[in-house]
Each structure stands twice: as C-alpha cells, then as structure tokens.
Amino acid sequence: MTSLLVRNAHVLVTMDGEEIADGGLYAEDGWIVAVGQSDDIPANADTVVDLSGHIVLPGLVNTHHHLFQTLTRAVPAAQDTGLFAWLTALYPIWARMTPDHVRVSTRLGLAELALSGATTVFDHQYLWPHGASIDDQFEGADGLQIRFDVSRGSMSLGESAGGLPPDSVVEDEDRILEATKDAVSRHHDPSPGSMRRVVVAPCSPFTVTDGLMTESATLARELGVRLHTHLAETADEEEFCLARFGRRPVEHMESLGWVGEDVWYAHAVHVADDEVARMGRSGTGVAHCPTSNMRLASGMAPVTRYLASGVPVGIGVDGSASNDSSHLLAEARQALLLNRLAVSPGVGEGDLISARATLALATIGGAAVLGRPEVGRLAPGAAADLIAIDLDRIEYAGALHDPVAATVLCAPVRIDHSWVGGRPLVVDGQVDGVDLGSLVETHNRLARSLFD
Ligand SMILES: [Zn+2]
C-alpha cells in the first residue's frame, strides 16, 4: 500500500459543494480516503506534502483535443478562415505525418495540457498516414502519469464521394473497423481509475459515410466503449447535412443511433431548442470548445440551455490548430467569457455563468462527459487526481478575496503540482519525466519537416 497526504492548503475545493480552508486530503493506492481540515485527517503517509499558500482543485478534464495539431499551429494559410477552408488548407499538410510526428506531438500536447491543470485527457485522432497508429499515441504518453482516453478515429468519405477531405487521407471502412477492434483489445482498460482507454470516433458527418457511423456505433456497443464525433460545429455543416441527408446534424445522428449516455459530441453549436431537450433526455453529452468556435468564427454553443436541460457538458480545448494552444485553465476562462457574451443585450438572454459553475464544467462536467465518475471531485472513494497552484504570484495579486474565482477570472497560469491516482504528474512546475527543452526542439524539427 502507498499513501499520499497533502495538507495545509489555503483552500481545497472539493467540487462536491465544499471549499475547505486549511484543507488536505489523504489517499491510499490512488484513491481518496479522507478529505477535510488538515487537523481532521490522518497525520502520516508515505508521501507528505505541505501545500501552504496553495489552492487545491480536482484535476481538470479535457473532453476534446487533436494532439497532432500542435504541429500546425498558426499556419499562415489557415489563420483567417472558417472551418471548411481551414480543414482543406491543413489536410495535405497533415497527410505528410509519420509515426514520429504522432508520437512526439502526443507527448508535447499532453505535457502542455498537464502544465495547465489537466489530469484526464481525451484525444480525437482521425488521420493515420504512413503507418501511424494508435500505438504511437500510447507510446507518446509512455511514463506520463496522466489519464489518457484516445480515439481510434476515422475518415472514409473522400472528395470524390462527396466528402470534404482529399481521397489521399481517407481509409477503407473494413480496415477502420478492424483497426478499431484491435485497438480496443490491446489498449482499452475499462476498470474504474483506468489510465488508458479507447473511444470509437468517426470524424464528422462530412468525412465518413452513414454506413461507417452506424457500424461504428454497433461495434462500440458490442465492445462496451464510448462514442464520439464532431457535430453541428458550423453553418456549413448544417447546410451539408440538409443537402445530403435532408436532416439537420442532430436529427441525422439520432437516425443513426448516435444518442445516449455513451455518446458525446464535440462543439454542438448549431443545435435547436427541441434538439437540446432530446439530448438532455437521452443523456447525450457535449464537449464545449469556446476558443475553437471563436477562432474559426463557428458560433456560440447554447451552453446555458444544455445545462438547464440536463445535458452533460465538459470543456474541450480542441486543438491545437483551431486554438493554437493546449491550456485548460485558459479554456475555462474562455467558456466563462463567451457564455457571458451569449447572454448580453442584443445577443441573447439568461443568467451570467459564474467562475465556480465554469470550474464545474472543467471538472465534474468533463468527468460525466467521458463516463469517468471517479474523477473531477475530491471526496472519499474518488480517484486521487488533484492540482495545486501557488497563490503568491503576479497573476493573482489583488485577487485573494476569492482565490477560487481567481483561477478562472485572472490570467491563466501554469499549475505548480498535480497528482493522478496519488502519483505525481507535475512537480514544482515541471512535468515529471519530461525533458521539455529537448521535447520542444524535436517537435519543432518535426513540425518544420511537414513543410519541406
Ligand atoms: Zn475537433
């Protein structure tokens, strides 16, 4: 048995409704046993950490990302376009990736996310050129104490068949289904507190066929894994769906069996009120990606309506080429700001979302979306996934009236420490086991090679 004790935190936020001054927690074998004031929890453990002057939060959960896109941030041809032109500018560049690109970009993106407070990350990879496979992603995450859910994503509807991507980046559907089955059998650990899971995630209605959508759902349910896709991201997509299927995106996915507590959509921006209500009834979740939606001028997701209708909502950084960063605290701040803009005069109506409600999206909300009820809160029986931020810093100067709100309202910071399953992920502002200098250098070399 190994045990962890953190104590003396300025404030510990459980996300179960409590903010504990002089807080601490005690965990055994990766699971929280006690949470409370430092004097009220066990006094000894194998590892004891004094977190005086720090705020402690549950580890943050990222519900949508494309780690490979860290290689193509700020690409000039894709800076000032909407989604479809952005994709068509980038597909040929992504088509040059090798297993090395996938492995190194995965590691770099995970490190960047970890430094911003992530302890659980879902990545949506849907493009496998030159023999790249899901193995390269798991290899990239090797040795990192981060919970990592990876999709065996796919694209099968090339340009010649009426899809958006060039034929060179789409795959044969039988091969996709075989590779998905293989990925689940070799990498998916369904147990609570699992460190590695596999998700079935065809890319979007305009990049795969209906047949593959349906077969993917059947396969995922046979294998007991979750289902994810991009949906209702832009007005272009809605037009595509109406023209090709005669249905709006959400209606179309409903007709293919893509609803339920095992399904979540990325973006879900252009969704009508009756569709929101049906998503709430079926428990279909949403990865809310505010930066990407602003960067590509896609629109504003109806987040307050989702929450009022009982739709599970988490935050997704969605990157990194439609965000150009992988920072979860920054994304939480964007979620707060965009959802306030959404209820401003002349735009919409409703209550202003609070900093605490936004933190809930980034923690328990994301946990619900990923089907990981053991993370996102600090309570006995939950996983010992926590982050700590030193409050004595310029970004929080003058904000200590409310350190909890400061984490969202003030400029996004790098966290100082995190633990996942009671073991260190970030130590003194560094990702444990990662030489960041050499990782950035290798990553930059590989990014350049895509343009040679
Ligand atoms: Zn995406």
Description:
The protein is of the alpha/beta class. 34% of the residues lie in helices and 21% in strands. The chain is built from 14 helices and 17 strands. Strands 1, 2, 3, 4, 5, 14, 15, 16 and 17 form a nine-stranded mixed beta sheet that branches. α4 (173-187) runs parallel beside α5, α11 crosses α12 (355-369) and α12 (355-369) crosses α13 (403-409). Bound molecules: zinc ion. Zinc ion binds next to loops.
Concise summary:
By secondary structure, the protein is an alpha/beta fold.
**Radius of gyration, Cα only, in angstroms?**
21 Å
Number of H/I helices:
14
| Beta fraction | 15-25%
Q: Uncertain runs with pLDDT below 50, 5 residues or more?
A: none
Ligand species: zinc ion
Sheet/helix structural class? alpha/beta
CA-to-CA gap between the ends?
52 Å
Please report the total strand number as a whole number: 17
Largest sheet: 9 strands, mixed
Question: pLDDT average, as an integer?
Answer: 97
Helix content: 25-40%
From the spread of the alpha carbons, the general shape counts as globular
